[in-house]
Amino acid sequence: MDSWLTPETIALLRSGLWLTLLVTAITTVGSLLLGIAVGTSAMLGKRPVQKLSKSFIEIHRNIPALVVVIFWAFAVPNLFPQQLRQTLFFNNPFWDSISTSTGLALPYYFLAGTFGLILNTSGYLAEIFRAGVNTIPAEQFESARTLGANKRVLFTHIMLPMGFTAAFPAVSTRLIHNFKNCALLSLVAVPIFFHGIQTAISKTFRATEFLLLATVVYLILSALIATLLRYTETRLARSGAEHA
Amino acid sequence: MLDQLLFIFENLPHLLIGFPGQRPGGLVMSIILTFVGLGLGFVFAVPLALGQLSSIPPIRWLCRIIVDIFRGLPLILLLVLVFQVIGSGRFGFVLEPRGAAIISLMLYSTAYQAEILRAGFTALPKQLDEIGRMFGASRWQRFWHIHLPTTFRTMRPALTGQTISLFKDTSVVIVVGMSELMMSARILLGNDISNAPYWVSVYLTVGVLYFLAAYALSKYAESAEHTNQVKGWY
Predict the structure, then answer these.
(1) Candidate from A62, A74, A211 with C-beta closest to B199
(2) How many C-beta atoms surround the C-beta of residue A34 within 10 A?
(3) The CATH classification of domain A23-190, taken from the options 3.40.50.720, 1.10.3720.10, 3.40.50.2000, 1.25.40.10
(4) What are the tens digits of pLDDT across the range B145-180?
(5) Segment A200-240, tens digit of pLDDT
(6) Which residues of chain B have a CB within 8 Å of the CB of A212?
């Protein structure tokens, strides 16, 4: 058995795997919150707010995630002159403290990339949530209005529970996409699992071994996440049926 | 501000059709990649969708596994896998970036299209098939003249959605160094430090180009769907 997997590559890949899961978790939660917020304000907000939310949705649904990620990570720092850019985005006590506590060499890229993914996924989720709310029978809203419910009650008691449950199959498809999109952060120098794989290949020239390893790991993770989402879906459907 | 506009204006042709000597590139190449990947993908998606509905368990399992594999992998991994493993010369042939990009996009879209078509084939009203039988059509005739066109029509919105999504996914082929819109932007900016002020405007332009193409495609699909419905019913 040849040793293409040295202890240091194993450490590299293990930390990359944790980072991938961390980014997946952050972007999932972040884009669910932002997506529902944007989708709701596109339906309930004042006229200008609605316009703004709808353009946010259209922009992020029609631009590739990679463009958004590279824009926030690589392009935005270049708005500033070189000296200022260094102190603002890379070398200052704030980033240094994050760097030492997390072990990330360039925490700005991590934050910007994660932010870009959240923007991208929340655009889709907002639209999906809107579609879910549209499936709610009009009588629900009418009866709520008859009882004098305000927008807040409308949101917490009707739109959120019923709309989200109705939209959940589409939401879970998008969340699996989001998990796969996390690999894009390897292109903005975030030491994510796929970045680790590429680093290992460039060091050892064992492309086949490492890429097959990555394939297996990704298939297992995709299957796990899909199972988790399906479980959530049945739980949501069951709790919805109990309420009805 | 003016120099920004000038820089974009001067380099817009490179973003649209690529740099001289490596045309077609840029946005045109992204669009070509999308439709080639989609078309080749469709050819394999039909048997994969039918295979999943087969009455022979091993065929069903095999098709299911193939679809799940290509849907479970990130496109970026698939690209590197095809480029560095399958196209490395290990199997007797070497793939250039263009070939690797097309094969990966094909495999990726095949899986998604197979999933869409499977849903379409399952949703086909049984009566249509029975009508075909009544006229004495053979299995193949029924498939070719009833199942496939009907499924294609009912699933057209989903297939257009898949087209738009694949178009946006072509941005990832930058990882094998294929010169489409993203790569043109990267080449344009290069490693030249004096280009730093233009990064934001170049990537904004790239975003606008992707947006316009994707948005136009979705609007066109919406109108086509509408006319199709009217024609189908009256």
Answers:
(1) A74
(2) 18
(3) 1.10.3720.10
(4) 999 999 988 888 889 989 999 999 999 999 998 888
(5) 999 888 888 899 999 999 999 999 999 999 999 999 888 87
(6) 85
Smallest CA–CA distance, residue B203 to chain A, in Å, is 6
Report CB contact under 8 Å: A66, B182. Answer: yes
DSSP for residue B56: S
Tell me the domain boundaries of chain A: 23-190
Contact A184, B172 (CB under 8 A): yes
Q: Is the confidence at residue A15, as pLDDT, over 50?
A: yes
Length of chain B: 234
Beta-sheet strands, E only, within chain A: none
Tokens coding B150:
């009907």
Based on the structure, what is the number of domains in chain B?
Answer: 1
Cα B11 from Cα B20, distance rounded (Å): 11
Q: CATH number for the domain including B131?
A: 1.10.3720.10
3-state secondary structure B144-183: HHHHHHHHHHHCHHHHHHHHHHHHHHHHHHHHHCCCCHHH
**Pairwise CB contact (< 8 Å): B196 & A82:** yes
Q: What is the DSSP letter of B53?
A: T
Containing structural domain, residue B121 = 2-233
Q: Kindly tell me the sign of the dihedral angle through the C-alpha atoms of B102, A13, A178, A79.
A: negative
Contact A222, B113 (CB under 8 A): no
Task: Name the residue among A121, A126, A162 with its Cα closest to residue A144.
Answer: A162
Cβ–Cβ under 8 Å, residues A6 and A211? no
Tell me how crowded residue A112 is: count the other CB atoms within 10 A of its CB: 25
3-state secondary structure of B94: strand
Q: Residue A17's pLDDT is what?
A: 94
ipTM of the complex: 0.89
Report the gap between the CA of A137 and the closest CA in chain B (Å): 24
Q: Do A64 and B196 touch (CB under 8 A)?
A: no
- Band (B233; pLDDT cuts 50, 70, 90): very low
Residue with tokens 């720092």: A77
- Angle A207-A213-A216 (CA atoms, 0-180°, nearest 5)? 140
> Residue A122's closest CA among A161, A177, A191?
A177
Q: A207–B85: do the CB atoms touch at under 8 Å?
A: yes
